[in-house]
Amino acid sequence: xxxxxxxxxxxxxxxxxxxxxxxxxxxxxxxxxxxxxxxxxxxxxxxxxxxxxxxxxxxxxxxxxxxxxxxxxxxxxxxxxxxxxxxxxxxxxxxxxxxxxxxxxxxxxxxxxxxxxxxxxxxxxxxxxxxxxxxxxxxxxxxxxxxxxxxxxxxxxxxxxxxxxxxxxxxxxxxxxxxxxxxxxxxxxxxxxxxxxxxxxxxxxxxxxxxxxxxxxxxxxxxxxxxxxxxxxxxxxxxxxxxxxxxxxxxxxxxxxxxxxxxxxxxxxxxxxxxxxxxxxxxxxxxxxxxxxxxxxxxxxxxxxxxxxxxxxxxxxxxxxxxxxxxxxxxxxxxxxxxxxxxxxxxxxxxxxxxxxxxxxxxxxxxxxxxxxxxxxxxxxxxxxxxxxxxxxxxxxxxxxxxxxxxxxxxxxxxxxx
Length: 418
Ligand SMILES: CC(C)[C@H](C(=O)O)[C@@H](O)C(=O)O
Ligand code: SF4
Known about the structure:
Helix content is 31%, strand content 18%. The chain has 418 residues and is of the alpha/beta class. Keywords: 4Fe-4S, Amino-acid biosynthesis, Branched-chain amino acid biosynthesis, Iron, Iron-sulfur, Leucine biosynthesis, Lyase, Metal-binding.
């Protein structure tokens, strides 16, 4: 019998043949905690009589949701977490690097075949690097901090096969919105999405991250892209301890479903309020007035997103009627964007460029919307209240669509901006 990628990973980690549906105790390679969920996980760890963490080198701690601290409570949480890291000898911790998921990948904390957990739902992003990565709750994380392992019910997989080449100004975000629209916000609950086909095989890492990131928006436990030359190239220098090896699904693997997409005729897509699977072609809602544009987050806050936004912007400026907030997802991405001269261009065009953090993505630190306001955002969630008032609206799109719309103050098809 053949195995899916996820079954292969669990079989290899558990040292015996594992099938979807099996419940196994598996060791984790890395565990990620952040400023918001970390304190509760530490509390749970202590309640389990935790004194010393299982392995400080396998814990990654990052601050991103409320940085710099935006309230006394946030400052207290961060102080508490810093002290915990120091007392436990956790040195993979940083207060300045940026959005946790981007930083985990950049620092090589996730590699093919590894099992990585994080106390954040978008931990599934690391499937872009061929890892089985999933978000867990704080009680589970307390257990992981203590024992370095966790019970998993091995998910079955939906094979998402994508073929064709993208048209100009159409890319990974449009694809994953299209997939979310078709699978539905709960269409992959407790399953894994295995992203295959020629489109993924030629997709650079940033696009793979965007797609794996949004697996959870369909309810999936994980999203995974089979590791290939692109993955190994990305890991070069980040993971000197890992040598390339083959990790692929078997021809005869059993999938819960097999879905096929072709991007040849794909057009820019937008998820309209208030659900991620309310997906329409941009032209259907072109002209919708917007108050704020956010380009950033673990979904689309990478240099490539800003480069595309800059291409669309050209020598224009952003509309005076729109607050344009741009936040590179990490210091590395910020520096790349800075060195390319894009930050200066964006600032001159009227944007606010902030230091790496989650920003307005979940209506946390800043960039909140007033009742009746409309946001166009490159992030991953648009439910009511996500970016401020429950009476506000959030639309989700690619960086190209966000930039085009920011120029005109209304939702605009990026293909129309010559
Ligand atoms: C704060 C955290 C628990 C949350 C998550 O788990 O995803 C956040 O990152 C989000 O995107 O909503
Ligand atoms: S950028 Fe948004 S989705 Fe990503 S971790 Fe931060 S709040 Fe969650």
